Amino acid sequence: MARGSLSTPPRTPKPVDSPPTEFDIVAAYNESIQNDPNITPPIAAIESLIDLLASSPLSTISETLALLSAHSQKLLASQRNPIPLSAGTELFQRYLISSFQQRPSSLANSDFSTLRHHIITQSSVFVKRANGARKTIARHALPFIKDDSTIITFGFSRVVQSILALAAEENRSFNVIYILPASSSSPKGSLETSISKLQRLDIPTSTIPLHALPYALSSLSTSPQFLLGATAVLENGSIVTDQGTHTIALIAKAFNIPLHVCVESYKFVRNFPLGYGPSALARLGVSQDVLRFSTPGDDGASEAGEANDAGVQEKKGDDYFGSEAKKTEEEEESKGPGIEITPPDLISALITENGIMTPNAVSEELIKLWF
Question: Model pTM?
Fold first, then answer.
């Protein structure tokens, strides 16, 4: 065979390196979270990426996408639970690509600086639209709150707070049962603020520990409803939340009580879990350990010797377990609440700004968004 008849394989395009920048994406994200108590992690991540684009001198689309990809990975790596942020960073990158492809004809032949300014402006509009999702969800959820009904909720959810506030403004007469988290690592300040807001709206509110939920349900004369929030929704319709939601969902199913999850569609994540335990969470970037087996001798002989040499009295009996329990509690508080996945078969429906849907419809919504 002649050498000239052989076809030359196509060259693989060289990946574009991320342009250097002094912008600190992690600091920008943390500042957004601290300065605005109403902002959600996905929106804070998107706003941080917009600030990154605005502060970086870029000259091509390839540079822009490389910069976003590199700093998105850096931001996700800094978080104990990167799943909600990944929803925001992936959505924004998809929005940016779509904006490049569908830019107005008036900008087709413009230089990149003009196009970049247009994209940043449109991105800010996108964020404002996403922030308005909460009010729309509240309108969709309002029919679920009947007069003389009881709503049960758990954790800190801005969406659920908006729903209950709207129902109170509409003069609906209802009670709220707020399930307190079992973990001391949960954000107590946020929970106390949520409960005080409900009471200021003259909504009769009762707080119960999680282990008292079955007894409380048996004490109600009418069937209640569960309205819960979520930090993220995975491709199969399962939800990512603080630990405790899975237990609540199992109890709700055992009592045949509907459980509705109120969540913005920008929290949908294009990721299909292969399970609901530690391995599934680790695959999503979450590493945590809730099992810590120990005995009084686990500190080791060397540590005990060092303590005695320093004149520290060895702890025994109740003193040991008391100090170890306090130490563990302090460690958990510094780490924040644990994360878990609640499977879709325990969820009655998702209430979003796009309407009410079953968990099975999440994959279809993601297909519409991405393809």
Answer: 0.83
